Amino acid sequence: MTIDSVRGAPEPELVQLLTPEGERVEHPDYPLDVTAEELRALYRDLVVVRRIDLEAVALTRQGELGIWASLLGQEAAQIGSGRALGEHDMVFPTYREHGVAWCRQVEPLNLLGLFRGVNHGGWDPAEHGFHLYTIVIGSQTLHATGYAMGMQRDGVLGTDRAGATIAYFGDGATSQGDVNEAFVFASVFNAPIVFFCQNNQWAISEPLERQTRIPLYKRAQGYGFPGVRVDGNDVLACLAVTRKALKDAREGQGPTLVEAFTYRMGAHTTTDDPTRYRLKAEEESWKLKDPIERVKAYLVRNQLADTSFLDEVDAEAKQVATALRKACLDLPDPRPLAMFEHVYAEPHPLMTEEQERFAAYLASFEEASA
Amino acid sequence: MSELKRFKLPDVGEGLTEAEIVKWHVAVGDAVEVNQTIVEIETAKAIVELPCPFEGTVTELLAAEGETVDVGVPIITVDVGGGEAPAEPVREEALKDDLVPTPEEPGMTAPEQPKRQPVLVGYGVKPGATQRRPRKSAAPPPARPQPVDSGRVLAKPPVRKMAKDLGVDLSTITGTGPQGSITRDDIRAARQAPAAPQRPAVEGDEERIPVKGVRKATANAMVASAFTAPHVTEFLQVDVTRTMETVRRLRDLPEFAQVKVSPLLLVAKALLTAVARHPMANATWDGEEIVVKRRVNLGIAAATERGLIVPNIKDAHAKPLPELAEALAALTETARSGRARPADLSGGTITITNVGVFGVDTGTPIITPGEAAILAFGQVRDMPWVHEGELAIRKVTTLALSFDHRIIDGELGSKVLRDVGAMLEDPIRMLAWN
């Protein structure tokens, strides 16, 4: 609840192209043409990333991952914005952007490796246009702004080699100094960046009214760039709005704040218990706005997909999850000595000494057992 | 061909060391799928449902509901071999197997144990709880803790169920199983033999409630307080007719329009005023010294679903009446809904317990550990009372003040109680004394 709603002002309008009931509606500023094939592909993305997420939660509960931040409920915000990205764009995610990672062809196993503690992510950010996960809240918005200013200085904006950055963050991060600094820099330098805020209503246990008294997208106005609130559970609206914001950025029109209004259906991470701070009724009301159900309803009602397609997607999702589970359990533990390998580019005497001492220590175990 | 796999209790919350089994969702003989919810556990952080990592048939549940299990200890055995479920699911052999360290029999459990230790992120793991790097030779799996306290009965869930069905009280039986655990045979034998000691052991006559959580904390605090602080309790009956009238008039003031005004508010204010007049009542015994607190964090004992807790209002002495009323309302609400934070529960300096809400006149309250006094506020009821020289029906309550005699002498304790009573008899005195 924001102060506007407290004082009786109507809740601001969401950009919506597909209602929770699965009805296609138009928005004057965001026309969108999607083919049946594209719609089916979006549906497939949504279902598969939800299944991957579910598997990761289960693996955590089974002691195979240290922790996991579930994206449940936020699939549309991530797939919609993720599929709006172009080849030259660069993503700066938080630790929850598994759906965006999927769109950027980052192998889900890499995400699991990170949370299993056997690697540091392990994908090449430049190759995928997808930076490593950032755990610190909000700091990636500054990285993204700096990167965008770099792109600006490459002098490619407005050309077909132009890219923009997109920084993902949550409603809680908007209270961070970093995010506000990023807004200022991006604004005054007119940097090619999209600030994509997934407002999932809860910053761990803190409700939105502890972050803001106005709708978050309105903050942009104070910094001097446009802000828009989009139905974060509507994959088409997220796609259209992000596409427009990225296009503006690439053309040198500066930053946009997109507030994807959504809901985190699960816990903040596997280590907290949302029943301690929020009401079941709230979750139930958001279930009616499920991002996947509305696409399914639209596809079926308009005969763009039949049961066999839906079953196929479910089967594919299950197969992806099963393979992922197996691959996760098969991930090798890193060699203990690997931790010395990437500290310095050149050999370092002290480190060499430490490495040798540690190797001798490890060898003592083998002798003991021999 | 049966192939048994065991699921060890994982650390589901960044460095937790144990969890309590709340509820099993499966029973021996049930078929389970990968990721099917098998059990609910409660950790220090949350209640969590655990999904099964295997597909197969449940052959054993290795921990009973209500039991606290260390991370890394197996809690369920699943036959993943695709064989038929055994007709007699729990045999003596299986029972024995349960209570001794997992035998690494080649061929039986060989592919079971993942080589890596469960991932531990974060802090706070007890040293030794997890062996971080096992030696190259197979390290012995963590042995189940030896039953050190003989007060607890060892029996597996199916055995417990059998005992319950047959109306046998497990606590009357001496177990003959491994480590003194009770077997099915023990129960059968106990049922045939006449119950040895005359003990009304029929199901339904008594219920055993494990002492844990808030109940345990309460018990510890009460014992600590009752046996360290020499308690003295004094009582005073007070005519609170004017207090009740004041409460009614406060409710009409715009300052109190949004907040609940209760007699407890005036009792709190009276106690705060009395403490200001007699600071020694707001003190703690530190062994060598008496520490007199300048700030008053006023504890309010609250009965909640989870048990008795005493959240406190920080700096209550500095709060104007409307703020105090708000704080009282918020505190009760938070406590009742089970959302009191540890900070709300610590640092109290003096306490009020509102026993009147239970419809009793008074009690002898036990001082919250670390404090010097506690005031019990009894029910307010119509009583015959001598008022201005005549018998009248008045609103009367009973106050009881327990205090730590090491800190507070009878004279001071009496003054505090008398002052509170005087203020409730005539709330104008609160103005005079504030």
Automatic annotation (TrEMBL), chain A:
| Keywords tagged on the record | Oxidoreductase, Thiamine pyrophosphate
InterPro entries documented for this protein: Alpha-ketoacid_DH_E1_comp, DH_E1, PdhA/BkdA, THDP-binding
Q: Does the keyword Oxidoreductase apply?
A: yes
Q: Which domain of life is it from?
A: Bacteria
SUPFAM superfamilies listed in its UniProt record: Thiamin diphosphate-binding fold (THDP-binding)
The record's listing under CDD domains reads:
TPP_E1_PDC_ADC_BCADC (cd02000)
Q: Name one GO molecular function term.
A: magnesium ion binding
As cofactor, the record names: thiamine diphosphate
Q: Which NCBIfam families match?
A: PDH_E1_alph_x
Quote the protein name from its UniProt record: 3-methyl-2-oxobutanoate dehydrogenase subunit alpha
Per the UniProt entry, what species is this protein from, by scientific name?
Actinomadura macrotermitis
Q: Which gene encodes it?
A: bkdA_1
UniProtKB/TrEMBL annotation, chain B:
Task: Report the residue ranges that make up the Peripheral subunit-binding (PSBD) domain in this protein.
Answer: 154-191
Superkingdom of the source? Bacteria
Keyword annotations of the record: Acyltransferase, Lipoyl, Pyruvate, Transferase
Q: Which GO terms describe its cellular component?
A: cytoplasm
Query: Which InterPro entries does the protein's record reference?
Result: 2-oxoA_DH_lipoyl-BS, 2-oxoacid_DH_actylTfrase, 2-oxoacid_DH_E2_comp, Biotin_lipoyl, CAT-like_dom_sf, E3-bd_dom_sf, PSBD, Single_hybrid_motif
Bias type Basic and acidic residues, positions = 89-99
Domain Lipoyl-binding: from-to ranges: 4-79
Can you name one GO molecular function term for this protein?
acetyltransferase activity
According to the UniProt entry, what is the EC number of this protein? 2.3.1.-
PANTHER family the UniProt entry points to: DIHYDROLIPOAMIDE ACETYLTRANSFERASE COMPONENT OF PYRUVATE DEHYDROGENASE COMPLEX, LIPOAMIDE ACYLTRANSFERASE COMPONENT OF BRANCHED-CHAIN ALPHA-KETO ACID DEHYDROGENASE COMPLEX, MITOCHONDRIAL
- Under what name is this protein listed? Dihydrolipoamide acetyltransferase component of pyruvate dehydrogenase complex
Q: Give the organism's phylogenetic lineage.
A: Bacteria, Bacillati, Actinomycetota, Actinomycetes, Streptosporangiales
Q: Which gene encodes it?
A: pdhC
